[in-house]
Amino acid sequence: MAEGLEFALRYPFSDSAKAALSGMDLTERIVDLAAERLLKALKGDKSTKMLLHDSDRKEEIASFAAARMILGQMRNGYMTNMFAVNESKRVRDCLDRDDERTVDAVAAQFGISTTSEGKKLTIDLPTYLKFSTRNPHYRLINRRLVRGRVEINYEEKKRLIEEAVKKHMESIPLIKDPPDIIKAAGARLIAELPKTESRVLGNIKPGDHPPCVMKLLDEMKKHTNLPHQARLYLATYFLAIGMNEDELTKMFSMLPDFSEKITRYQVGHIKKKEYNVASCATVMTYGLCCAVCRIGSPLNWHTLDDFRKNAIKERGA
Ligand code: SF4
Hints:
- By secondary structure, the chain is mainly alpha-helical.
- Helix content is about 55%, strand content about 5%.
- About 35% of the residues are buried.
């Protein structure tokens, strides 16, 4: 049943959630729950609570809105991205457990509507482009079009919803004059944030690396999540130019879904397997090339003199 408090609890951005909160006031208890929610996001903890009483459920739903108020007041990109990633992954877990009717109700919140075409589904092109990820798998060239609509499967539909949730969480409106309890919660959370950006990223100067790499590093500095291909590309590139596994792991710590254990394992695996750095042609197929360097391989950037590097930068991304 795609309605009611249980639905609102799992999907606190939904119209059902807004209806459930109608007439409720912001209390210290709700703000405390919101801060707890944000701290869980920092730890990548997407567990959900078992709540028996409707009053507890409503407070938990309200904690989502309060968390957005805290973020709107903090204006901290790292915290917002951590929250967006954690909430979208939590929602994905819920979608995986829920039935198709409920998944459709969540999809409808974002204007995502699919039509059955035999065993496949189709979705209109603008919505597909709006919510598909940067993974090459989702590029239109790898997709079948049916009467102008894009063919997807049920898993991909849930992935589009996950991305829609993430985008929604990332777009937090600025709260200019929040209640004092929201300000106080934001100040407490600031103390929990990593103090400085990765030393490795801080040491990189403009022009040290090719434009595609610099662009990805910029995104990482803003704590934007990077797709798998981008991470693999960065790892092979930096290993190839002599960065060690520790430094590389520290560099990836800027990503909002960073897990030291998983990153160390993956970096170690890439090093052990001695994966080659992708050529420019391959980087282009990943959708990560952003300039016309004509150097064949990003590694050749280091053979260019400053004059050629500047000419490439001036030609622009
Ligand atoms: S041409 Fe090669 S080095 Fe330059 S931005 Fe594209 S992929 Fe990177």
